[in-house]
Design a protein that fits this description.
The strands form two sheets. Strands 7-6-5-4-12-11-10 form a seven-stranded antiparallel β-sheet. Strands 1-2-3-9-8 form a five-stranded antiparallel β-sheet. It has two domains: about 40 residues; about 180 residues, no CATH class. The protein contains five helices and twelve strands. A hairpin with a 7-residue loop joins strand 4 and strand 5. It has about 260 residues and is an alpha+beta fold. It is extended, with a radius of gyration of 36 Å. Helices cover about 20% and strands about 30% of the residues.
Length: about 260
């Protein structure tokens, strides 16, 4: 290899050679700076950015986008359930109350129209919600068999006479710490779990909301839907909190009664 100043550049004078060396050095310096600057970008391009964890549920605003938020019936007080409705196709969503998990409540079912005994309350349930990951189970506690005896007797009753799962529903999204569920899918899609064989929905797509009132301690919900023979019937649900009786102390009953 020819040293700088010999061979190809040998015809240049000292001044020209010095200038050329300076130019070449500056060019090499710029090239090094550019390469060093681009290196992190190349690494970033090759290394995939850490993806954000996917949210467990879609945002509440997205889920309720086409729905109307129903105002509580009692002005200034929060409803027992928060209700959203979409009247055009009879859709309804509801956020359960805070502290819902394990809290007992009462459901009264009535066929409000479409039969001879319409308006008379039919079945009822004493139940509670229990969460299983992304689903909620509606459970009926065992209240028929109790023990007031020793600890072993109580343990035996608790082991043998367990609670009963009636149905389950998916959690659509969350509102604060409360699950939001599809109420028409629950109350109409699984109407037979509430009314038994008396009700068979023939077409759940032909659904109309007839009542949606949210009081502080209960909600009153009703849907009109064609049943077995195609007859339009209104199914009414009254869902009420069971607050208990503060200060009440039960006493032992007479065993002869």
């Amino acid at each position: 290899m020819l040293p700088i100043g010999d061979g190809l550049f040998g015809f240049l004078g000292d001044r020209e050679m010095s200038s050329l060396k300076s130019t070449v050095c500056n060019a090499l310096l710029v090239l090094v700076v550019v390469i060093v600057g681009l290196s992190p970008m190349a690494v970033d391009a090759q290394t995939p950015s850490a993806s954000k964890p996917k949210p467990e549920y879609p945002p509440l605003a997205t889920v309720t986008k086409d729905y109307k938020l129903e105002q509580p019936t009692v002005v200034g007080e929060r409803g027992y359930y928060t209700i959203w409705t979409r009247e055009k196709d009879g859709q309804m969503l509801a956020a359960l109350p805070s502290g819902y998990d394990g809290r007992r409540f009462f459901i009264a079912m009535t066929i409000a129209s479409g039969e001879d005994y319409a308006g008379l309350q039919g079945n009822d349930m004493y139940v509670y919600w229990k969460r299983y990951d992304k689903r909620l189970a509606l459970i009926e506690p065992n209240i028929r068999i109790k023990s007031t005896g020793d600890a072993e007797s109580k343990s035996s009753v608790g082991r043998l006479f367990t609670d009963r799962v009636i149905l389950d529903v998916p959690i659509v999204t969350m509102s604060g710490g409360s699950p939001v569920i599809d109420m028409d899918a629950l109350l109409i899609g699984q109407a037979n779990k509430f009314f038994g064989s008396r009700i068979k929905i023939s077409n759940s797509r032909l659904l109309k909301i007839k009542k949606k009132k949210a009081f502080p301690k209960n909600v009153e919900l009703a849907f009109e839907v064609p049943t077995g023979s195609g007859r339009l019937q209104t199914l009414h649900y009254s869902i009420s909190e069971i607050p208990g009786t503060p200060g009440y102390k039960p006493r032992k009953a007479d065993e002869r009664v």
